[in-house]
Design goal:
Helix content: 40-55%
Strand content: 5-15%
Structural class: alpha+beta
Number of helices: 27
Strand order of the largest sheet: 6-5-7-8-9
Oligomer: single chain
Shape: elongated
Largest sheet: 5 strands, antiparallel
Number of strands: 9
Length: 590
């Protein structure tokens, strides 16, 4: 009697075969029957007995038989693909079949003794809860700073910024700056958008505990609001984590019952780490090439924690080792992301440990938390299902984003990411490719990455001072950046004091290349309460100073003996004037 469905016959004594047959059985369900060759006896006389030891045999219901790679493709319902790769696939099949014992060990090393189809329902559930929390942190952190930064009496008013663009009359100004603030950007609107982001993030978090309704719509709104802020944020919203959140938030919109978008998240994680390492070597900075960079990093990074003070005291041999390990973690470990499950999980654990060490020694806002969340896509449901509350497991399967939409997004992301990587690694691209990047970059759906390409070896700090008479000067104190030498470095992440961060960048250059700094001085001279609210201490609460100036000091950590004797965490030396004394009437004669 003819069989009712195809039968795949395999060598039951082959451990390699048993592992993969078990995996295929999960993929095909009851569509295909599987039999060990030792069990079939004389049931299929058309197949020579010796053929069972050479390759798998697929017997169709009509009695016809195919074998080798073609049988595998047919079993998995991928015969159309076989037509494109028949030659190479048959060669690879024969190569592996003759070395099954070796590849059995490789399979166990890479996958384990049981392979399961990759599923990402639990991964997505956990990631979206983390993404919601990070969105809430990003919007909430900005809500209490936005008026001082971008309000009508802020440092970089959005109204003035958009007005200057509007005056150009350029037809592409709305594409260059995609933002809802073209409709209005008064102080109340700016604040309302931030709090709306917090509310939407809370709603996104809670949808995972209900039925997930409106989840995708909320993700779209969060992306639009965050893009609107970044587009008008100028220097204060141009950090890599702002861009990373946009790219991750964009991909999250298309999560669903497909494996395409989770792989795009893995590709994003690879690019993030690999480019961070590549730019360090391509910059030509000798401190990375001779492994001395971390000897400077602990005290020169923007906002170190108290853990950085202790890391700074470790022996120079450790600093060289840590630098080499950092480069290896960024240049080599990411390639394991592209490998099978066990190696990929090994990479995930390594990269997660790296992020935890960075969290302990530096304040990088929500960047490390977002990077940790991205690393979850290096796992799968087999590893992460246990972390989803039991009562929510039955609601994990989200509605499909549409395979056509997912493939379209994949095509766009892959093309743009390859162009961005080529530009980062090789320099300027031919004109047509540069044009593509120029017109797509404002949307921030694919971005460049790479921190600390050139290691800062000295820490210059700008001390901003005011005076009522031009003789006695009193320093403004910032919330978190180094100022008083007795003030210990603080943990502030995931909050980002954006003015404090920008002051670090300003110290790398001069005030002429940082026009926002001049605006900061003017606002303090005008007595802007919104700008003064960004500081920890305003020495002129009753009325603004008549004069403002800024002095540059070089800061380093104290050694252990000095710290024990004086209580100081920092020591400093005055280097000169950063910003000469000015009043609202202009520069003050020296």
């Amino acid at each position: 009697m003819a069989a009712e469905k195809p039968i795949l016959i395999f060598d039951g004594k082959c451990g390699f075969c048993r592992i993969w047959i078990d995996y295929w059985r999960q993929l095909t369900g009851d569509r295909v029957e599987y039999l060990a060759s030792q069990e079939v006896g004389n049931r299929f006389p058309q197949i020579p007995t010796e053929d069972y030891a050479e390759s798998v045999q697929l017997v169709h219901p009509d009695g016809t038989v195919i074998s080798g790679a073609r049988a595998v493709f047919k079993t998995l319902d991928k015969e159309k693909l076989y037509g494109w790769v028949s030659g190479p696939s048959e060669f690879a099949y024969r190569f592996i079949a003759r070395r099954r014992s070796f590849f059995h060990h490789v399979t166990r090393l890479a996958f384990g003794t049981r392979i399961e189809p990759a599923r990402f329902a639990a991964t997505q559930w956990l990631f979206l809860r983390a993404l919601a929390a990070i969105y809430a942190l990003a919007f909430g952190s900005l809500a209490f700073q936005i008026v001082g930064l971008f309000g009508e009496r802020g440092i970089a008013p959005v109204v003035r910024f958009l007005g200057s663009l509007d005056a150009t009359g350029s037809p592409i100004r709305f594409l260059a700056v995609p933002s809802i603030f073209w409709l209005g950007a008064d102080d109340n609107t700016l604040t309302a958008v931030c709090f709306a982001g917090v509310v939407l993030a809370a709603m996104l978090f809670l949808t995972g505990f209900t039925n997930g309704k409106f989840e995708r719509f909320i993700l779209v709104l969060l992306f639009v609001l965050h893009l609107s802020l970044v587009a008008v944020g100028q220097d204060f919203l141009a950090f890599q984590w702002d861009m990373l959140l946009l790219e991750a938030g964009f991909l999250a919109i298309f999560l669903g019952r497909n494996r395409i978008v989770p792989w795009l998240f893995r590709w994003l994680t690879f690019r993030l780490f690999f480019l961070s390492g590549a730019v360090k070597l391509l910059s030509g900075d000798p401190n990375w090439r001779n492994f001395s960079a971390l000897g400077f990093h602990w005290h020169t990074q923007p906002l170190p924690t108290v853990g950085a003070w202790y890391a700074d005291k470790l022996p120079s041999g450790f600093q060289h080792f840590a630098t080499a390990a950092t480069l290896g973690s960024e240049l080599l470990i990411p390639f394991l992301i592209l490998f099978p499950r066990r190696l990929r999980i090994t990479a995930a654990c390594w990269l997660i440990a790296l992020q935890i060490l960075i969290l302990a020694t530096g304040n990088y806002t929500y960047f490390n938390l977002l990077t940790l969340a991205l690393c979850w896509f290096l796992f799968d449901d087999q590893a992460l299902l246990r972390f989803v509350p039991r009562q929510n497991r039955e609601t994990l399967a989200r509605g499909p984003a549409g395979r056509a939409a997912a493939w379209a997004v994949a095509a766009v992301v892959l093309v743009l990411s390859v162009l961005h990587m080529a530009e980062s690694l090789r320099g300027r691209l031919p004109a047509p490719f540069t044009a593509i990047l120029r017109y797509t970059t404002p949307l921030r759906i694919v971005n460049d990455y790479g921190l600390f390409a050139v290691m800062t070896t000295q820490r210059n700090e700008i001390i901003l001072e005011g005076s009522a008479d031009g003789e006695a000067w009193t320093a403004y104190e910032f919330q978190y950046k180094p100022g008083k030498i007795a003030q210990a470095p603080r943990w502030v992440a995931p909050y980002q004091p954006r003015l404090d961060w920008q002051m670090w960048f300003a110290a790398l250059g001069n005030y002429q290349s940082n026009p926002w700094f001049v605006s900061l001085a003017v606002r303090l001279l005008q007595g802007s309460e919104e700008v003064a609210g960004l500081l920890a201490y305003n020495p002129f609460p009753a009325q603004p100073p008549r004069y403002i100036r800024a002095t540059v000091y070089q800061y380093t950590f104290t050694d252990s003996q000095t710290r024990a004797r004086t209580g100081a965490w920092w020591q400093r030396e005055q280097k000169g004037i950063y910003f000469p004394p000015v009043s609202l009437r202009g520069a003050v004669p020296q």
